[in-house]
Amino acid sequence: MDLSRQEHGLDLLNAIVAFANFVMLPAVAYGSQLALGALGVTMIYGILRFSNFAHGDTMAFGAMATILGTWWLQAIGVSLGPFPTALLALPAGIAATAVLVLLTDRLVYRFYREQKSAPVILVIVSMGVMFVTNGLVRFIIGVDEQRFADGARFIITAREFKELTGLKEGLAVKSTAMLTVVVAIIVVALLFWFLNRTRTGKSMRAFSDNEDLALLSGINPERVVMITWIIVAALATVAGVLYGLDKSFKPFNYFQLLLPIFASAIVGGLGNPIGAIAGGFVIAFSEVTITYAFKKVAGYLIPAWEPQGLVQLLSTDYKFAVSFAILIVVLLFRPTGLFRGKAL
Amino acid sequence: MTLTPRDMTLFLAVLGLIAATGFLQSWNVALGILNMGLVSAIMALGVNMQWGYAGLFNIGVMGFLALGGLSTVIISKPPVVEAWDAGGPRVIFALLVGSAAIVAAILAWKRMPAGKARAPALVAILVVGFFVYRWLFDPAVAAIEAVSPARAGNLGGLGLPILIAWPVGALLAAGAAWVVGKTALGLRSDYLAIATLGISEIIIAVLKNEDWLSRGVKNVSGIPRPVPYEIDLQNSERFVERVSGFGFDPVTASTITVKLAYAGLFLAVLLLLLWLAQAALNSPWGRMMRAIRDNEVAAEAMGKDVTARHLQVFILGSAVCGLAGAMMTTLDGQLTPASYQPLRFTFLIWVMVIVGGSGNNFGAVLGGMLIWYLWVMVEPLGVTLIGGITAGMPDGFWLKKHLLETAAHMRLLTMGLILLLVLRFSPRGLIPER
Known about the structure:
The complex is a heterodimer. Chain A has a single domain, classed as ABC transporter involved in vitamin B12 uptake, BtuC, CATH 1.10.3470. In chain A, α2 (about 55-75) packs across α9 (about 220-245). Chain A has helices spanning about 1-50, 55-75, 85-115, 120-140, 160-165, 175-195, 200-210, 210-215, 220-245, 250-255, 260-270, 275-290, 295-300, 320-335, and strands at about 155, 175. Chain A is an all-alpha fold. The N and C termini of chain A lie far apart (about 65 Å). In chain A, strands 1-2 form a two-stranded antiparallel ribbon. By secondary structure, chain B is mostly helical. Chain B folds into two domains: about 5-80 and about 155-425, Orthogonal Bundle (ABC transporter involved in vitamin B12 uptake, BtuC), CATH 1.10.3470; about 80-155. Chain B contains 18 helices and two strands. Chain B has a two-stranded antiparallel ribbon with strand order 1-2. In chain B, α16 (about 360-390) crosses α18. Chain B starts with a helix and ends in a 9-residue tail after the last helix. At the A-B interface, α4, α11 and α14 of A face α7, α15 and α18 of B.
């Protein structure tokens, strides 16, 4: 009697560990990546007032620049020990991406800003930029998958965890997943400190809230736009590199991230940075939970039940459908998003 | 609104480019470009209806094209009888139950008074509906996909003539457009864009994964043709006699004849659609659409139902895209769900419309043919160009190797540059709206 109760308790623990291993950890890492991407989209929307369809490809460019830097560092024998070398190359990647987006702004977007073009024209222009950036990335690094993660693969492997706890289920903590979360927290903290505490950040928020009033109080719009692009370049590069480290780098995947990223930004409320982060986690958790096969977890929770299928709500290929469905529901019932973004 | 001499010159120039390919390379290549150019022109017409007439921003063109492609399978492939026996009726019943659950949820939301009971009722209907649907659906799909998976594994189609699939493709796309439009129209333009992008990705995911319907990544090949097969022509004595009389090689003549037959079919559809689109644009309806596009508030104040008109033109444009999608799959002779890429099938169509001249049907047709020509020709031109640049470099030099390998990716770069240059220096396109 006592023994079986204890076993049942262990089953519950096993179920929780399996859930954490296959749902919680991947969703937290993916959510951080989406949140960083959505922050970039939402910043552009707040300051420049258009939906930037080139953002996915900006992420790909940033990741590509960082990969090239990483390869060079690896070639001359520099490494960070247990950490991926890509972290060292990250500043160079951000700088290269900042140069790219500032050039694009100067050559392309500024003209339309001066013309005061409609936002939808800027969206179409960003489509052109998307093509060019995408072509550039393919031209430089090709379309194939690139692996550039080095250093320790796991903080704790499934076997170590099992030996440590004596449970049947293992909890494998990938170092890239942990790194994603830590870097995302640092980047977001820096961003919010900048927006809320510095003079430039405050002028950016003022510009986003009311452009005319901001201009009247002597804020230089071109400076605000320039700093926005630099921040967006940093966010996009970090998001792109973290995604590439955690999964793998393939230019086309970044284009496909556009949908979940926009869904995150819109669900949180376009133009609202806190909303973008919340939206990223909402989308990531829903995607992973709905497409996870719960057979194992269910087996621990209800030992008497032998599920026939995988106990999976939707196959993983339909993950787009999940972000899409959440997006539609939010748009129908709360069009400004969960955190009241702008509705221009 | 007729064509000016300048417009005629532009059309002749594009035809001249294609003819030059015929003289310099081969007529097979030139006619291939012409055929796909005609289909692209129809796609551009559809997008132009939505963007040019009404200012609707649809970036889900790929999904509507794919639905058109699916219709060719559903209509023209012969039915797989064992698969139907294994689970055909049950799949259809499951789909009906699933749709009924969604309709019931919508009705419940609309009919029930706002209160605490409404949201839980909505969720309950959807959750119960989903599980009943899966309980009906999963075994039937497993049974169908088990029927000789290497050869079939799907339900097949109705075995009807392929030409019926073209209007059916338009209907399928119109149905999808109705669903999207009902939910996303009336929201801001970028939200419609994201919604259409999402629905197109979902449609492609369905085609890739629902093997019982479209065989997924195993592709459906051997879709029947509306024109004769080359091999039949070569075996026909009358055909061989006639072309030999003109001094042609029967093999080349048969491929050219087939391509010309396609070109005739496509040209007929294009001219009919162009005539209809012009008539609509110059009617009071067309003027109303443009009035709504230019100032929604003013049009609404004049008593126009903006949302209903937007829905109407969104459905019409998507139907044209569906038709073009069915024509394209007919031309290819196979449905390959994995080949649908948004850059090629959504954004390239947008480049066609913008470069041709948004708001002008002739512009869309011109843009469709011209951009398709460039899309095909940029790759060999890029390879030649890179070949020229790298000619002076020593063999085995890493930069030479890299440049030669990546020359094929010049396409996207060129298309993006063309789009950006046109938007900047000639935003109204080659044949502007009048």
